[in-house]
Amino acid sequence: MGPRLRGDDTEFFDFHETCYEQPISTRSPLFVEAPAPMKIRKAVFPVAGLGTRVLPATKAMPKEMLTIVDKPLIQYVVDEAKEAGIEHFIFVTGRNKSVIEDHFDRMFELDATLAARGKKAEQEILARDQPAPGAMSFTRQQAPHGLGHAVWCARDIVGDEPFAVILPDELVLHAPGCLAQMIAAAEKLGDKSNLIAVEEVPAHLTHNYGICGVGPRHTRHGAMFEVDGMVEKPPKGTAPSNFSITGRYILQPEIFKILETQERGSGNEIQLTDAMIALAKTQSFYGVEFEGERHDCGSKAGFLRANIAYGMARDDLRDGLREEMKRYLEK
Ligand code: UTP
Q1: Hey, whose CA ends up nearest to atom 3 of ligand 1?
Q2: Are 93 and 51 in contact (CB under 8 A)?
Q3: pLDDT tens digits, the chain, 331 residues: what are they?
Q4: Which residue among 44, 54, 58, 63 has the greatest number of ligand 1 atoms within 8 angstroms of its CB, and so is best to mutate?
Q5: Is the alpha carbon torsion for 296, 301, 303, 307 positive or negative?
């Protein structure tokens, strides 16, 4: 099948027509009327990477602790997961990452000092970000063998249920958050469906991303389509579409069996995309075109852009930031 870029909707409309002529039993799973709802209780946060693109910042400090405005990246994604109804937060960590665990712990000295000084607002910020006891698990990826390997390290804590994966270096600025949008999409699908958050990228840059092919879609299910093949970093000119796979996934536990024997792929790493390609042979995958602006905070330029965007989105900072930027640009 040739490339299907956005705007090439003819096939979707043809598909739509065909579906309504078919008896319901032969329709695509997108048309199942009352699927059993899928409950997503756990989210995996792979945080064991080296963050080489933002060195030297990440020499001794985890990339996931870089701050956007006044919060570390990891706090943004945990908040996004909480908002989406996630009950258990699983971190796949590595060397030099223990400060992530500390960030979610109670700091008694700090609490006591803030209380003694009457700093109620600051105390409330700490209390707001405090996870419930027992709601977090930490496991170790001893060496950064790739995202697929990091996800596999969480297999025993996830167990036999569908789960979310969130990459902390990608933020989506939107309310409701990206994961909440995906879970709402998942609720319209049957059991054993997998979902990936997708975003359009310029066609000449597709070789830098995991790309998915675009299958049938239907507006009744919002901005969601059946994934028709996936490929990690396709050579220039061969991408099946310009929809890139971004850092939010809802996966079925069968992915772990595949990851167990998954060979190294692009970049000599065990790639999650390769395991998803294998799982797509037996289970459905859907691409969710989420609402909101995605920020790649794992690159220096993306990190700076995110700081401006998140600052400008804050009522308490917007005017001051605008003023500072104006003064800087007028220099
Ligand atoms: P990235 O590829 O963006 O992160 O992985 P990286 O490898 O840390 O960064 P660079 O490319 O060297 O700058 C996305 C997420 O997956 C985690 C990373 O910590 C990051 O949050 N990851 C990646 C792992 O947990 N283990 C790995 O082996 C690779």
Answers
A1: 298
A2: no
A3: 344 444 344 333 333 333 333 333 344 555 555 556 789 999 999 999 999 999 999 999 999 999 999 999 999 999 999 999 999 999 999 988 999 999 999 989 999 999 999 999 999 998 888 889 999 999 999 999 999 999 999 999 999 999 999 999 999 999 999 999 999 999 888 789 999 999 999 999 999 899 999 998 866 666 899 999 999 889 998 999 999 999 999 999 999 999 999 888 888 899 999 999 999 999 999 999 999 999 999 999 999 999 999 999 999 999 999 999 999 999 8
A4: 63
A5: negative
Per the CB < 8 A criterion, the answer to whether 44 and 166 are in contact is yes
Instruction: Name which of 184, 170, 193 is nearest 282 in CA terms.
Output: 193
Q: Is residue 75 part of a domain?
A: yes
pTM check: above 0.85:
yes
- Ligand 1 nearest atom to the CA of residue 64, by list position: 21
Task: From 44, 45, 50, 268, give the residue whose CB has the most ligand 1 atoms within 8 Å, as the site to mutate.
Answer: 50
Smallest CA-to-CA distance from 292 within 314, 316, 310, 273 is with 310
Q: What is the CATH number of the domain that holds 300?
A: 3.90.550.10
Q: Which residues contact 276 (CB under 8 A, 6 or more apart)?
A: 194, 196, 230, 249, 251, 255, 285
Is 130 within the bounds of a domain? yes
**Ligand 1 atom closest to Cα of 54?**
13
**63 in Cβ contact with 169 (< 8 Å):** yes
Say how many domains are in the chain: 1
Partners of residue 194 on adjacent β-strands:
285
Task: Judge whether 69 lies within some domain.
Answer: yes
Task: Classify residue 32: in a domain, yes or no.
Answer: no
Domain range enclosing 253? 42-321
